Amino acid sequence: MGKALGDVLGLAAGVAVSPLPVVAIILVLATPRGRPNGLLFAAGWMLGLSALGAVMLVIGGSSSASTNKQPATWVGALHLALGVLLLLFGAQLWRKRPANASEARLPKWMAAIDRFTPVKIFGLGTALAAANAKNAPLTIAAGASISSSGLPIGQQIVTLALFVIIASLGVLAPLAVLLLMGERAKSMLGSWKDWAALHNIAIMAVLFFVLGLKLLGNGIGDLTA
User: Fold this and answer.
1) Rounded distance, CA 32 to CA 144, Å?
2) N or C: which end of the chain has fewer CB within 10 A?
């Protein structure tokens, strides 16, 4: 199980470093029902990652590892395709980045978060985890790696759970700060939000490139093993 977890740690870290979801949960925490709304957002986020990863475990099944203990061919091909996809997304983001970070703009829906119902907040967390252009490919790749590890299903589930926890650290950190510090956390969280909003596009573009290259390398290694 240690090897399988080691294979997905980098992917989990890539999901955890997600500026836009961090900004979103900080805005959620600033709503009148900040704490319960923040818990709902985090629960939705973790459910989105878990569901996407579980789908890949089901698709892969216990037979996805080849007989010589190397990853199945489809896993290598998937890693390769996802790597190319992330590189393309990274190039597109880099071209569209503002010349001045101060010109960066957040999505318009963020201005309406304070009017979101609990159901919408839960759904927002789920969508930012499972339907995000960076997080979805990384979670799919992680699920494929786990399913091809040859581990018993119980250990696969534990590995996926650890992946989800690590991948959720970026979103859980603001929530933990608020729960531990109360009102004193507001200025700190505000600074985090401002910084993440300013540098969101540049950070995401770099992450797309780095993680895309990682998946390309994994795919080539899988296919030539």
Assistant:
1) 40
2) C
Q: CB atoms < 10 A from the CB of 63, how many?
A: 11
Residues of the chain predicted below pLDDT 70? 61-72, 98-106, 225
Query: Which structural domain, as residue segments, surrounds residue 103?
Result: 2-224
Number of folded domains that form the chain: 1
pLDDT in tens, 29-67: 988 888 999 999 999 999 999 999 999 998 876 545 544
44: nearest Cα among 171, 198, 195: 171
In the block, tokens 């296919």 appear at: 223
- The three-state DSSP-derived secondary structure of the chain is CHHHHHHHHHHHHHHHCCHHHHHHHHHHHCCCCHHHHHHHHHHHHHHHHHHHHHHHHHHHCCCCECCCCCECHHHHHHHHHHHHHHHHHHHHHHHHCCCCHHHCCCCHHHHHHHHCCHHHHHHHHHHHHHCCCCHHHHHHHHHHHHHCCCCCHHHHHHHHHHHHHHHCHHHHHHHHHHHHHHHHHHHHHHHHHHHHHHHHHHHHHHHHHHHHHHHHHHHHHHHHC
Q: Which residues contact 28 (CB under 8 A, 6 or more apart)?
A: 34, 37, 38, 41, 113, 116, 121, 124
Tokens of residue 27, six digits: 């805005």
Residues whose CB is less than 8 angstroms from the CB of residue 184 and which lie 6 or more positions away in sequence, other chains included:
none
Residues linked to residue 71 through DSSP beta bridges, in sequence order = 65
